[in-house]
Design goal:
244 residues; 7 helices; single chain; 16% strand; 7-stranded parallel beta sheet; alpha/beta
Length: 244
Amino acid sequence: MTGTQEKVILITGASSGIGEAAARLLAGQGAAVVLGARRTDRLEQLVSAIRAEGGRADYMALDVTKREQLDSFVDFALAKYGRVDVIVNNAGVMPLSKLEALKVDEWDHMIDVNIRGVLHGIAAGIPVMKKQGFGHFVNIASIGAYSVTPTAAVYCATKYAVWAISEGLRQESEDSIRVTVVSPGVTESELAGSISDEGARQAMKEYRRISIPPESIARAILYAVEQPEDVDVNEIVVRPAGQR
């Protein structure tokens, strides 16, 4: 299947930011989007807006740290549409701090969401994609997957892991399963709101003086998804033009 028309696309972390922007864009291009996040009130509003514009969208409550919920998420899409074309593993958190601050609970939360969440999405999707003979994982990493900055050691580690897991999956997969890593640079989102460390929060405010809207990343996702089935876009890095 070429393009996005009629594709069934699952998106985690879809209640805001990149996930929401991707849902709107992909639905507008003819895909049926199945949206998951913890904030179901936002998902309900988003689905209503997409349907009002003639798109197809459904949602369910989803905590990506719970493997059984990812399994249920995929089962929900299968029951509704009969197949899964794309899983966008987008859910992520970014509570930055220096290692010496010893915010171990925040480290654990990043590992659970940013790494285990992606693995759970892959575990739920692989059996389905292998059985149906096609499928595409789009995993959202970060420019933090390519370089490390102060206060971001654990966050960058989780995004390095997303890159490594994705590359391993690509190499192991048969031709019928495609794998794409999309790595955003500074992007407008709610991620900075999870930073509890005062120094890291102030540094992020300065860092985010130059940013791009989440729609810019959504277009990168669309580009990867709409390619012909014999084309596998492996990595896309998207930065603000002014970010060096």
